[in-house]
Amino acid sequence: MACRIHQPMQHAAYTSLCSTGSYRLQQTPCLLYTSESAGTRTAGLYSLAEKKAYTLTLPDPPMHSRHIIGSSYGWIVTADERSELHIVNPITGDQIALPSVTTIEQVKPIFNDAGVICNYEYSWHTGKRAISDTPSTFVLSGLRESLFYKAFLSSDPCSGDYFVVLIHNPRSQLSFARAGDVKWTWLPPDSEYEDCLFKGGLLYASTSIGEIHTFNLGAPPVTPKILLDKVKDIYFERIYTVQASCGELLQIWRSDVPPQWDEEDESDSDLEPELDPKCHVTNTTAIKVHKVDSTSKKLMEMISLGQNVLFLGHNQSLCLRAEEYLQLKANNVYFTDDDYLYLTGFKNNRRDIGIFDLESNSSEEIVSPQLWSNWPTPVWLIPNPRRMS
């Protein structure tokens, strides 16, 4: 069900996008974030094109209370304090509730004496094995931190027909729902998925060892086909899948330096290790770009993106032409923090956000001083002023 907000053009961003009458869906990506100074029901939108920040008023529940797990086609995917999912268009205020979290394969509701859901039972099984035979019990708000990793849309929800795909735990499995569905459909038996992309009517899903599986979600029974077999044995880099502006499929590997543990804490087994305050954030140190050769089923490393630009993070991975977005820097990667363990374990720590130059192998800040709160983590968003019909 959609919930629409009509403010007297509360969004200067909306006015800016529509004032020319020549709106294109492919606007320059902006950074969506929350700010303690702006209030609980608002979000900030930093425009790379204008180098300007806007304030957006969003529908309930408050933005500060949500987890953001995805961004596609101008909509974000959020998990509220009951671990229920919504997709929200921050520009128009449209909001759509997704199927209940209790319809995900590994989740069951626990009711109190009044018949109200008070907790969730979470099973640790994948399509191949059970990590633990004993289910866990989570309070309503606690499940989302252990369950959700990333979410993706197949198309603009304004079209009326779209899929939502979840990467969720245990072991980063896949589930999906189509517009109008009342429950999630599980896609066993594979796991360890890192990123997803819709291309040519198919879902492309990359694993942590570089495999790429394809799925036709509209043709049940849905079974995976292997486009690319594993290209590495050890999980180290975070992996993204993106369609280049020329239509080719790219696989991106992103490396970082994790937070450092205090040596004194490590030497004492009776103490929980604490983060060294001098090293309180992960830092992206390398990004490698590979072209996927579907004929040879191999990766070909690229030394440059040329005139292309990448956007990585909790958003749908994007590749744009700098020639069409003059404010963007060619052969650069605009990134936000999406390290799952770090984000959920250290919410108050500074986020790994910046612009990575592939030629010099160095990063710079997007804006200084920092505009955003560290939680929820900021995401890239392509503003979409289309309203639900």
TrEMBL record:
Positions of the KIB1-4 beta-propeller domain: 45-357
Looking up InterPro entries in the UniProt record yields: KIB1-4_b-propeller
Q: Which domain of life is it from?
A: Eukaryota
Its recorded name reads KIB1-4 beta-propeller domain-containing protein
- Organism name: Urochloa decumbens
